[in-house]
């Protein structure tokens, strides 16, 4: 039996109406419906017409309600879906699905050892096939790491299985235009947050999405989506290609996995987008104070140099390591409050101050990879509010991260360039198609 999930919440495809009958329906008819609902543009109004004292009359008419189903509907089955709500139980969901008492009891008895029924995740969807009499024929629910819970009625007895679901990978293409924020633009373009976050990570070494974002920036993205055997999208996958045009300058990226198994993002001509340092240590925030030689300190109430960049963000916002390295200090230090210092080489260090707390397991000497969460935004030390103080130190001296030219990973080797271009040719073609999207239509 092929499963065909519905796309809307709890819609019954048919209703049981065993006998023909008449009902008295009360209809309110306004002699002029304009002032009741305000549909000004839907009606023509003569000039100087008074809208006061409009009379309303109640008119009662007998209407015949036709049968929606034939008299015999014993074999009719319905596919329904229910979204799991916070605090839900499977008993409550079965009740909303109108499953009868006997099948509810049998279901609960069969599913008493089910992992899935103990992991009802709010927002996820449960699909069920029932008869019009409330008999449950089948239920399916995708939970955990793409595991499928399946309950089927066979010879009037329920049979349960929980197994890895077979997912089908599809490719989607989207384009968007920035009018306010990147997340607002990706939401309007129906791009999942996970994909939006990948876009910022891919271009993080070239674009500072706090300082560089401009109204009118536009982007295109090609990414994977995973679907179960019923056609329902279960999650979004990897970004395969993306283009972000920032202040008129295009930045392109394609994903390529070499024969060695190592994958990464490159420009279409084979240059690596992975730099030794990310441009910023937070996924999304705003700069509240930049690198400067003269800033009025809000706590000390005097002018002094500000040898770092402050990122305003709510307490608890995750802080990333901008480069791979080793923890050389994790503790409290004067005005910095809770401070982490990472040593990246003999030349480079980064510092992260005012943290509310450190990541679990962080300690001096621990090896850290680029992008790892090392702590969380706070307001410890000399801080008037929650923010991250970030410093890039070159040979022990603080430098403006926006002005330091940082090394990049090596490009595709000359001998592998032909294979790279052949593999990524279709992705570049998709970006070119999307680039021709009429941006006016995205407003």
Proportion of β residues? 35-45%
Indicate the CATH class of the largest domain. Answer: Alpha Beta
Helix content: 10-25%
The main sheet comes to: 10 strands, antiparallel
- Give the count of structural domains: 4
Strand pairing plus helix content: what structural class? Answer: mainly beta
What fold name goes in the CATH topology slot of the largest domain?
Nuclear Transport Factor 2, Chain: A
Mean pLDDT: 77
Inertia-based shape: globular
Counting H and I runs of at least 4 residues, what is the number of helices? 6
Radius of gyration: 30 Å
Low-pLDDT runs of 5+ residues are: 1-49, 285-297, 299-304
The number of strands is 24
Distance between the termini: 44 Å
Which architecture of the largest domain would the CATH scheme give at its second level?
A: Roll
Order of helices and strands: EHEEHHEEEEEHHEEEEEEEEEEEEEEEEH
Structure explained in plain terms:
The protein contains 6 helices and 24 strands. It is mainly β and 443 residues long. The chain has 4 domains: 21-65, no CATH class; 77-164, Nuclear Transport Factor 2, Chain: A (Roll); 166-275 and 409-443, Nuclear Transport Factor 2, Chain: A (Roll), CATH 3.10.450.350; 286-399, Glucose Permease (Domain IIA), CATH 2.70.70. It is globular, with a radius of gyration of 30 Å.
Brief write-up:
The protein is mainly β and 443 residues long.
Mind sketching the topology for me?
Elements lengths: L20 E10 L3 H4 L18 E10 L11 E7 L6 H7 L4 H10 L14 E7 L4 E8 L3 E8 L2 E8 L3 E10 L4 H7 L4 H10 L15 E10 L5 E14 L2 E9 L5 E4 L19 E4 L2 E5 L6 E4 L2 E4 L5 E3 L4 E9 L3 E7 L4 E11 L8 E2 L4 E5 L9 E8 L2 E3 L17 H19 L8
Antiparallel strand pairs: 1-2, 3-4, 4-5, 5-6, 6-7, 8-9, 9-10, 10-11, 11-12, 13-16, 14-15, 16-23, 17-22, 18-19, 18-21, 19-20, 20-22, 20-23, 23-24
């Amino acid at each position: 039996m092929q499963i065909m999930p519905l796309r809307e919440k709890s819609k019954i495809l048919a209703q049981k109406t065993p006998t023909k009958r008449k009902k008295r329906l009360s209809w309110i008819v306004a002699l002029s419906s304009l002032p009741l609902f305000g549909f000004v543009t839907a009606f023509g109004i003569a000039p100087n017409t008074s809208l006061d004292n409009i009379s309303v009359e109640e008119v009662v008419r007998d209407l015949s309600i036709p049968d929606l189903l034939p008299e015999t509907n014993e074999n009719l089955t319905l596919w329904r879906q229910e979204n799991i709500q916070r605090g839900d139980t499977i008993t409550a969901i079965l009740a909303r699905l109108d499953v009868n008492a006997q099948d509810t009891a049998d279901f609960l008895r069969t599913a008493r050892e089910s992992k899935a029924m103990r992991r009802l995740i709010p927002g996820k969807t449960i699909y069920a096939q029932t008869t019009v009499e409330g008999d449950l024929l089948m239920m399916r629910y995708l939970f955990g790491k793409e595991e499928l819970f399946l309950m089927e009625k066979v010879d009037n007895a329920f049979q349960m299985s929980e197994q890895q679901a077979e997912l089908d990978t599809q490719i989607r293409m989207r384009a968007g235009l920035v009018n306010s924020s990147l997340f607002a633009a990706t939401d309007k373009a129906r791009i999942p947050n996970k994909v939006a976050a990948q876009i910022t990570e891919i271009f993080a070494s070239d674009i500072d999405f706090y300082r560089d974002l401009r109204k009118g920036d536009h982007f295109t993205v090609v990414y994977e989506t995973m679907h179960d055997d019923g056609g329902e999208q279960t999650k979004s996958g990897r970004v395969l290609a993306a283009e972000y045009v920032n202040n008129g300058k295009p930045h392109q990226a394609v994903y390529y996995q070499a024969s060695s198994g190592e994958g990464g993002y490159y420009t279409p001509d084979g240059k690596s987008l992975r730099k030794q340092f990310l441009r910023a240590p937070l996924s999304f925030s705003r700069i509240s104070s930049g690198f400067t030689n003269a800033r009025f300190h809000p706590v000390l109430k005097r002018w002094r140099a500000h040898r770092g960049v402050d990122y305003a963000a709510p307490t608890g916002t995750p802080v990333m390591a901008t480069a791979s390295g080793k923890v050389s200090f994790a503790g409290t230090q004067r005005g910095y409050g809770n401070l982490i210092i990472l040593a990246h080489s003999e030349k480079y260090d980064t510092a992260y101050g005012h943290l509310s707390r450190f990541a679990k397991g962080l300690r001096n000497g621990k090896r850290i990879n680029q992008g790892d969460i090392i702590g969380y935004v706070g307001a410890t030390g000399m801080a008037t509010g929650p923010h991250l103080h970030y410093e890039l130190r070159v040979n022990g001296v603080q430098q403006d991260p926006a002005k330091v030219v940082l090394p990049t990973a090596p490009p595709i080797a000359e001998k592998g360039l032909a294979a790279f271009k052949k593999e990524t040719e279709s992705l570049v073609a998709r970006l070119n198609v999307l680039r021709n999207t009429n941006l006016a239509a995205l407003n």
